[in-house]
Amino acid sequence: MLTDEEGRLHTYADLDCESAKYANALLGLGLKPGDRVSVQIEKSVENLWLYLATLRAGLVFHPLNTAYSEQEMAYFLENAEPALVICDPRKEHGYRALRNELGISHLLTLDSCGGGSFAGLAAGQANQFDTVSRKSDDLAVLLYSSGTTGRPKGIMLTHENLRSNAAVLVEQWGFVAEDVLLHCLPIFHVHGLFVALHCVLMSGASMEWLPGFDREKVRERLPKCTVMMGVPTYYTRLLADPDFDRAECSSMRLFISGSAPLLEETFNTFSARTGHIILERYGMSETGMNSANPMQGERRAGTVGFPLPGTEIRICSANHEPVAEHDIGEIEVRGPNVFAGYWRMPEKTREDFTDDGWFVTGDQGRIDEQGYLAIVGRSKDMVITGGLNVYPKEVESLLNGMEGVAESAVFGVPDDDFGEAVVAAVVPEKGFRLDPDGVRLELAEQIAKFKVPKRIQLVESLPRNTMGKVQKNLLRDGWT
C-alpha cells in the first residue's frame, strides 16, 4: 500500500491494525462522538493512521498547518474547542500554556518517526476496533480558512462531503488497485489529505510516500509510479532541471495539478518535454473538487475543465443572476461535495449561500462555448503561493499595528517558482525610518513563513479610487 521515504512497506493490514490501536487510544481518553481532535504534527505514516483513527472513532479531525505560529494556534484552539490536541514534541512546551488557558482536556505528542506520548499510549491498545457508526451528514473534519476580514473560518465537512467527492474522482480519473500515487503533498490541506489519499484508499491503490517535495527524490520515485498530484510549483521545479524528460515518466499515466493556477507556459513546456498533458482541476476547502479537465478529450490550458458529475456550476452577477454566455461573473457551486457551513458562524454561512442553496465561491470565472470553465480572478483578493492560501487582510492588520507603519497593502505578484509571491507596499509614518527587513522579521514571529511578504517596498502613499479603495491593481502593475 505505502512505501515510505526509507523504503519500508506498510500494507492495508497495517493500516487497519494501527488505526484500530489509535482509535482505541482516543476513546480510552474519554472522547465522545463529535469531539474535535486538533492536530499539528509533521507528515508521517503515523499521521495518516491518526486521521483514519479519528474518523473510525466518530471524532472530528482538525488538521493544522505545521507552519502556524503559537499566536495563530491560540485562535484556532479557542474557536474549535478540541477535547484533545496532538502536537510535535518540540512544540509541547508552548502548548502547555494554551492548554491551561483554554481548558483543553488532553495534550499529547506524536513525532514524524512515530514517537511521542500518544504513540506510547496507542502501543498497548488492541489492534481491532469496531468503527463508531455516524450519519452521512455528521461532521467529519474541521478545516480553517482565513476570510478577507482576516478572521479564520471553520469549514465543516461531513462524511458525505468526503465520500461523494472521493467516489467521483476515483471514477473520473480511472483509479484502480494497480495504480501507484506519488504523494509528496502536505496532509494538513485538502489536496494531500482528501484528494490524494481518498483516491488511493477508495481504489485500493498504493503510494510512494515522501515527507515533502524534493526534486531528486521525486525523480527517483517517478519510474515506480503511475499518478502524481502536485501544485504548479512542483512542475516548474521539475522542468527547471534540464535532465528531466519523458524517460523518467514512462510508467506514468496521469499528472494532476491544482491548488493554484497552472501557467500556460508550464502546461505547454511540460507536454513538450515529457509527452504528458497535465490535468488541471478546480477545488476549494469548502467544496473539495468541483471541476476537472477530461481524462479523455482535450485538456485545455488556462481552464479547469467541466463540472464533475453531481456538481453544478454557474456564473452569476453580484445579485446571483446567471450572466450571458462567455461573460465573467461569480462562480457558484451546488452539490453533495459542498460543505455544511462555517463553524459557529451562521451569519457568514447565510451570507455565502444563496436562497436556493448555491455556494458563492468568491472566485471569478467564465464558461466558453464548449463548456470549459476558466478562473479569471478572485474577488476575495486571496493570494495563492505554492498552493497555500494567504489572505492579505490578515497580514495587513499585523503590519498596520506595527510601530512606524501608517498603512499597508498586501498582494500577489507573478513568481516563476511559487506561482504568486506575497509582497507588500508600506507607507511609513511621517518622520519614521522603517527597515523593510526588520518588518519582515517581526512578522515572521507572528505568522507562518509562507504568509510573510517576500519583499516590502516603502511608498509615500497608496493609490486610491474615488471611493477611497486602495487600487492594488496599480500597485501590482507597477511592482519592480
Task: Give me the secondary-structure topology.
Elements: E1 2-3, E2 9-10, H1 12-28, E3 36-40, H2 45-56, E4 60-63, H3 70-80, E5 84-87, H4 92-102, E6 106-109, H5 117-123, E7 139-146, E8 152-158, H6 159-172, E9 180-183, H7 190-203, E10 206-209, H8 215-221, E11 227-230, H9 232-239, E12 254-257, H10 264-274, E13 279-284, E14 288-292, E15 306-307, E16 312-316, E17 329-334, E18 341-342, H11 346-352, E19 359-367, E20 373-378, E21 383-385, E22 388-390, H12 392-400, E23 405-415, E24 419-428, H13 436-444, E25 455-458, H14 472-477
Defining key terms:
14 helices, Rossmann fold, globular, GMP Synthetase, Chain A, domain 3, 4-stranded parallel sheet, 30% helix, 26% strand, alpha/beta, 25 strands, 9-stranded mixed sheet, 480 residues
Identify the CATH class of the largest domain: Alpha Beta
Count of the domains: 3
**Morphology:** globular
Instruction: List the uncertain runs.
Output: none
Query: Based on DSSP secondary structure assignment, what is the total number of beta strands?
Result: 25
Percent in strands: 25-35%
**Average pLDDT number:** 94
CATH architecture verdict of the largest domain? 3-Layer(aba) Sandwich
CATH superfamily of the largest domain: ANL, N-terminal domain
**Measured distance between first and last alpha carbons:** 48 Å
Helix-strand category? alpha/beta
Q: How many distinct helices?
A: 14
